[in-house]
Amino acid sequence: MFLDQFVNAIGTGVMLGSIYAALALGLAVTFGLLHIPNIAHPAFVVAGAYVVAVGNSCGFDPLLVALVALVPFYVAGLGFYEFYARLFERRGAADTMNALTLFFGVSLVVETALLIKFGTNQQSVSVAYVGQSLTIGLLSLPYRLLVPALLAPVMILLLWLYLRFTHAGIAIRAVAHDERALSVSGIDPRWIKRHAFGIAAATAVVAGAALIIIGPVDPFGGRLMIGRTFAVVVLAGMGSLPGTIAAGILIGVSESMVSAFASPSWAPAVAFSILLATLALRPEGLFGAHR
Amino acid sequence: MSDPILLVENVEKSFGALRALGPISVSLKAGERLGVIGPNGSGKTTLINCLTGTLTPSAGEVWFLGRKVTDLAPHRRARMGLARSFQIPKPFTGMSVLENLLVPLDHLHDVADPRARAMEVLASVGLAGRAGHEAGGLTQLELRKLELARALAGRPKVLIADEAMAGLSDREIDDVLAILERLNESGVAVIMIEHIMHAVMRFSHRIICLETGRLIADGLPDAIANDPLVQKVYFGEQARH
Amino acid sequence: MTAKTSLMTAAPPPAAARAPEARTLVFCACALAVLALGAVLTQTIANPYVFFAAFIIVQQVALATGWNVLGGYAGYINFGATAFYGAGAYTGAFLLKAYGASIFLCLPAAALVGGGLGLLMGYMTLRVQGVYFAIATIALVVMMHTLVLNIDYLGGASGLALMPPEPPAWTGGQVQFVFLVMLGIAVLAVACARWIEISWVGRGFRALRASEEAAECAGVPTFRLKLSACAISGAILAMTGAPLVFYASFIEPETVFGLALALNAIAMPLIGGKKSWPGPIIGAVLLGSVQQAATITISSELNILLVGVVLIGFVAAAPDGILGLVDTLRKGRQ
Amino acid sequence: MTISRRRLGKLAAATGLALAAPAVWTTGRAQNRPIRIGASFSMTGPLSSTKAGLVGLQLWRDDVNAAGGLLGRQVELVTYDDQSTVAQIPSIYSKLVDIDKVDILVSPYGAVLSAPVMPFIKQRGRFMAGMFALAGNDGVKSDRYFHSAPWGPDAKVNWARGFFEVGKAAGCKRIAVLNADVEFAKVSAAGGKTAAKELGQEVVFEQSYPPNTSDFSAILRNLRGATPDAVFVCSYPPDSSALIRGLSEVGIGDSVKLFGGAMVGPQYAATLQALGSSLNGIVNFNLFVPEPTMVTPAVTSFLDRYTAIAVPEKLDALGYYIPPFYYVAGQLIAAAVTATGSTESAAMATWLHANPVKTLVGTATFNELGDWTERRVLMTQFQGIKGNDIEQFRQAGRQVILDPPALKSGELAQPFLKARGA
Predict the structure, then answer these.
(1) Cα nearest neighbour of B14 on chain A
(2) Which chains, if any, share at least 3 CB pairs under 8 A with chain B?
(3) D314 CB near a chain C CB, below 8 Å?
(4) What is the pLDDT of residues A58-84, one digit of tens each?
(5) Strands (E), D264-383
(6) How far apart are CA A220 and CA A108, in angstroms?
(7) ipTM score of the complex?
(8) What is Dmax (Cα atoms) for chain C?
């Protein structure tokens, strides 16, 4: 009994954690690399989930829809960054407070727009594998969690390879390190940042697919995720992509352990306690460099 | 002469695996004019930050007025009489020039009439006419002067002037140098970090030169100017630019 | 409301400034006049709705002002105003349930709890960049919410219905009494904000907002100053929450930790102007009445959308709010 | 300012006269002025899905007005958005009473939002129709408060008693209780435990969990270890879905014969549609289902008209749960006003305490606390659901009524695993 519970708590925790990492990935780029505190990212994820739901209601597989929607989300991200940059970066150093307020307003607009378009009903997708589990000995892994959980490592690996081995990717990391270095080498940092922001926005639709495969989504579902996604990014260490998945899993496993062996009532506080503890004790995160 | 008022003993500062400063030992006597030179990245700013308390040294000790201040917060050192100006002026925008000077005076209890004192300092640097002006709207020279005035408002014992003349014309440099000289004559020790060689040579009693975080020379201006090591790392590089 | 004094309170040029003491006298007189007016109204207006509605608006003024001490003066955005408000509200509810305590006991207790919570938050997060503080405040709301859900004595998710003690007879009724108390809190909050603004404390805040490093090197104890901003703001927000249970005879976590309050706490100072004390008041009164009008004339979803758009609009076009706009216009004309 | 403009607008709409002083109108000839019904709705915020109720109330108003109004006067609704928050409620109800001078009040949705109004109506002696507030009057005990929902007397303990009655008949002895940390679920769970004990059943497992929990595998595994015969679930829409999904994934064990009871969610079209066939076998409460024992031409016509409005407005497409009971609230008011010939609170209350009222969903009689004297909460079992088509839920035989006996329309399919078609 105990062993069964323990093994499955770990299994569920790892899957949930991997999904948290997928949700936080866009933020790891915008906040971790570009230092833009985009608290609207979870709202983008919910918007992505809605797009996937609409595509699914026309009979397409959620992942396929997400793949196709990558492009419009990337473009929307470009546009949004342009708006942001015109507002703030031209004025010199972006005032964090104003930027946060802007993103707060944007998430409100996105949520309400969804509400007006789709009503308060929850949206969901229907896929064949929901409701079934993969059983390995004691361990039983619901496909509902397993499929989205497999997305995160794939996304993170792809992005990591991109950042490491392509010119644009290396430029993004250079911007993260020092913006001036880049303008010296003749690349427009603004173009690179816009591009990175577009990528971050594009991850939102894949994360949205993950979110809606797990369960129904409503317009305000993103709000619950803000703290958790930031917890993942901060715990990982700013901009560390492999750290993102480790941090996600750490949080996921902690939550599911608390659920299984303490009380589920306290589970929501787990991510936030980890976040606060990280900020107080090790603000550079687990895998981040001392800054 | 007298005991040093500011003393740096075997101070080191590392960022991760990178050692940016030291170990280094420097001392400053009351009323002295000390020039600090060295190429970019030689550790000058790190040294200043360790003096003011913005950075805590990884090892070593800092003494000020006979007190160990290694772990003391910057504002406490400032109140003890350690003032600095910034390389890139950092005016308190959103308030008047006068108010900029009131900020340090707010935290000193031995100033009877802060406004009078502030006006007096402003007059001494030639900014009296700008007292009511928004600090953000000043010219480059005025910003430099404000920077100095703010540092001087609380009658410091030591002033650290971090490239107070960068980007100024020759006439403006003379202007700033005059202020610093008058100040020094009133008994304030001055540490001048400067790239403008003729200014620092003219002003300083003594000059130290840093290179990759280490002290490579310490002596009279003439001696420093002719020091082959200094010429190699510093003037050589300057010449190439 | 009390916005009789000039809008140009921040950084007056010394030549143009009237003696600060005289201005303070005028302010105190106005504050007392507002309180007296409130007391007179409770005696002369029979319709209780006026006080039900006025309570909400005055509460918003206190909320906006409390938020602005940290958000406007110190420049630290707090998404978790409701965590402090809720802490205060539940402190009030706890004392009322446990000891039948009077509201006058609940207020200082709530202030203490809110101030302590602010100190704790500040101590944990203010050493790192401001954005972490903002994120941590989101976390704080969830933690407070979870905490309340798990405390059975406070009713958990079911909420807590409590009958407040009889109000003093001269006030004319519970709602009139609670309104007066809230008016007192708002006046106190505004007075506190104004004192901060015109004193060395406000100067220190403005200095550290312009450059934390320079402020520190000019002798400003920046960390301690930020901590006290957290504590003062937390105390005001918590005090604003304390009368809720006396007003509604009921309290439940979804309301006190809900989005609406947190949203308004940010929007009001932003709209009015964050830099000086009349800003939050203007924002609170304006947003309060616009929202009231909007709920009647347009659909409620559009109403929220409107707040979002207004937020974006102000951040984009007038980051210093209406007062900032007025100042710019004035300067332009000069 | 906004108030007078609002009145003006209403007047213009009602009479076609754009220029008339509001004061003249409020104090004008009482006989011709409309009867005003005041209510607050959660148009925004977490409870906004309940706003479908407004359509129910509007349909009632239209029907009454089409039939010549009440006492020869037209009926007019005055509603505000409470944003799902308690903080707005006192001011809204004071506004309805003191400014809008409404004649009759309808409560906000649910016990939480109603709680702040209760002392108010008691103090002012106002009549109020209660909307879905489980045991909403048990604290204040107003004699002028009437539930439109048929929770029955002593609702905290008994409203879901049907679940345990069905369980007793099926031989369930060991009960597990699962609840979300929200008001309705918490109260229901506490009541369920009491009801189970009264029926000689043993509570062998209980667990609460935070709202919006998306993964129930740990909870279900712990639950399975307790080998219950029946699982009484008090959940809210998001977690109802997650839980039912978890049921398929983790399994529940062979011991369980009965699962469900107080799950909010599988009453709404969106949730039903999303869950589809995975609902099969679950026994859960409802207040109306289109079974032959309940359907009348009146209710069919109501639902048809509701659907025509709701679907384009993106409200709940079925409308079985909330909208009919807003219509019922209107019917209670209409009956009392017509019978007493007045809109006077005391008279209306006295009459309603003494007389049964025929409503859309059956005949209502009230006890001294305004509860329906007879519990008429349905326990239904989902049977034969295929795929995710919403239209099948409009058919009889999909949600079979097991309890109360008077409305019973089918038999419990068991054991649970077989009923699920697994």
Answers:
(1) A290
(2) A, C
(3) no
(4) 888 888 999 999 999 999 999 999 888
(5) 283-286, 357-359, 362-364, 378-382
(6) 9
(7) 0.83
(8) 62
Residue A1 to residue A81: CA distance in whole angstroms? 52
Is A262 an 8 Å CB contact of chain C? no
The answer to whether the CB atoms of C213 and B54 lie below 8 A apart is: yes
* Secondary structure (3-state) at B147: helix
Task: Please check the confidence at residue D6 and state whether its pLDDT lies above 80.
Answer: no
Taking contacts as CB-CB distances below 8 angstroms, the residues of chain D near A213 are none
State both tokens at C5: 């004094």
pLDDT tens readout for residues A148-169 = 899 888 988 999 898 888 888 8
Contact C304/A95, CB-based, under 8 Å?
no
DSSP for D139-190?
A: TT--TTEEESS---SSHHHHTTHHHHHHHHHTT--EEEEEEESSHHHHHHHH
Q: Which phi and psi (to 5°) does residue C28 adopt?
A: -60, -40
Same domain? B107 vs B137:
yes
Domain limits, chain A: 2-281
Judgement on whether residues B150 and B172 belong to the same structural domain of the protein = no
B57 preceded by cis ω (within 30°)?
no
Is the domain of B96 the same as that of B59?
A: no
Distance, in Å, from the CA atom of C259 to the CA atom of B113, rounded to the nearest integer, reads 48
Domain of residue B107, residue span: 90-155
Which whole-number Å values give the CA distances from A119 to A191, D44, D307, in the listed order? 37, 11, 15
At residue B223's C-alpha, the angle toward residues B221 and B224, to 5°, is: 65
> Residues of C with CB below 8 A from A108's CB?
263, 304-305, 307-308, 311
Contacts of A290 in chain B (CB under 8 A): 15-16
Q: Please tell me which residue of chain A has the smallest CA distance to B15.
A: A290
Gap between the Cα atoms of A101 and D312, Å rounded: 34
Give chains near A: 3+ CB pairs under 8 A.
B, C, D
Task: Characterize the bridge pairing of strands D362-364 and D357-359.
Answer: antiparallel
D125 touches chain C (CB under 8 A): no
The number of distinct structural domains making up chain B is 2
For chain C, the structural domain boundaries read 54-257
Contact residues on chain A for D242, CB-CB shorter than 8 A: 215
Question: Is it true that the peptide bond before D404 is cis, omega within 30 degrees of 0?
Answer: yes
Residue B96 gets which letter from DSSP? B
Tell me if D222 and A260 make a contact (CB, 8 A cut-off). yes
Handedness of CA C64, C69, C73, C75 (dihedral sign): negative
Domains in chain D and their CATH numbers?
2-155+303-364 (3.40.50.2300), 157-291+378-419 (3.40.50.2300)
User: Does C216 contact B73 at a Cβ distance shorter than 8 Å?
Assistant: yes
Q: Return the SS3 of C174.
A: helix
The pLDDT, as a whole number, for residue C293 is 65
The answer to whether D218 contacts A144, with C-beta atoms less than 8 Å apart, is no
Architecture of the CATH domain A2-281: Orthogonal Bundle (1.10)
pTM comes to 0.86
Hey, of C213, C217, C222, C223, which one would you mutate to test binding to chain B, going by the most B CBs within 10 A of its CB?
A: C217
